[in-house]
Structures are given as structure tokens and as C-alpha cells.
Amino acid sequence: MDLILWRHAEAFELRELCDDLDRALTPKGERQAQRMADWLNRQLPAGTRVLASPARRAQQTAAALDRRVKTVPALAPDGTVDGLLAAARWPDAREPVLVIGHQPTLGLAAGYLMTGLAQPWTLRKGAFIWLRARDREGVTQVVLHASLGVDLL
After folding, report:
1. Of 147, 38, 50, nearest to 93 (Cα)?
2. Which runs of E-coded beta strand occur in 2-103?
3. Is residue 147 part of a domain?
């Protein structure tokens, strides 16, 4: 199974009178999301399942893909690694899964899958990490397939 963890692009800062879920992408964030979506669309198989946080900034990032997206409450900013992995059906999903969400959950999930420990890895805004689960002699191994920051596009 392939699991792609994509952090939402740059968003406006949280204001005192603003709900965190309503924060939108900045103009720079909109450009970041589109550049990364263009790259991902060239790489992702057609049957990739796309899951996104209900937060506006994640929804806007997902919209740049121009694919069908399922909104998953467990991927909200206060989500957990367990909730993310359950939503993605890791490691048993038959199709690749792209998750668009938030720090620290994405980084914790990547760290956990790669090392077995919930380490606080950091994904920059707009960046992704692409992990692949494979079976070797009855043991599930996790392989880093790709990782890319939007600033390298």
C-alpha cells in the first residue's frame, strides 16, 4: 500500500476572533497547492483515494488536485495518528491513499511508520512524504518512496 501524507499549503495566521477550521490559504499557499497538485497528479495512480481534513486550508489544498475528495473529521487539526491510520486503512488498503492534513499529526504518523516510535517529524507547509508498505517474508516493511517540498518544484 502507498500512503502519501501531504501537509496543507501556507495559510493565514490564526486570529483571536477566528475559528482555526476557517483559516484559508494565503495567495502564496494557493500557488504552492497548485504547483504540488500538478506534480502529484503526474505521479499518482488514477485510483488513488484522497482524504482531507475538514479544515478550510486542507480543503483548498485538496481542491487543487481536481480529484474526488472525501472529508474525514479524524484528520482535523486535533486528529491523532491512530485516527489517520484507521481512515487510510493502513497497511491493508488496496489502493494508494493520499491524506491532506496537519502538523503535528502527519509528522508523528511518518515518524511512527518509519521507526516504530511516534517521533515528532516535521513536514513543511505544502510538502509531502510518500510511504510504501511491502511484505517481505511475512513482515510488513515501510519504505520511503519519495518526499518533496514545494520549494523544490
Report:
1. 50
2. 2-7, 49-52, 69-71, 97-101
3. no
* pLDDT tens-digit series, residues 92-142: 999 999 999 999 999 999 999 999 988 889 999 999 999 999 988 988 899
Beta-ladder partners of 146: 130
**Does the predicted model carry a pTM greater than 0.85?**
yes
Q: Tell me the helix, strand and coil percentages in the chain, rounded to 5.
A: 35, 25, 40
d(CA 61, CA 33): 5
Specify if 110 maps to a domain. yes
Edge-to-edge strand ranges of the sheet holding 69-71: 69-71, 49-52, 97-101, 2-7, 128-136, 139-148
> Mean of the per-residue pLDDT values for the chain?
95
Distance CA 127, CA 86 (A): 22
Domain count, the chain: 1
Nearest to 37 by CA among 128, 112, 120, 105: 128
* 52 HSE (CA, 13 A, CB side): 21
Domain that holds residue 83: 7-13+20-127
Residue 114 carries which DSSP code? H
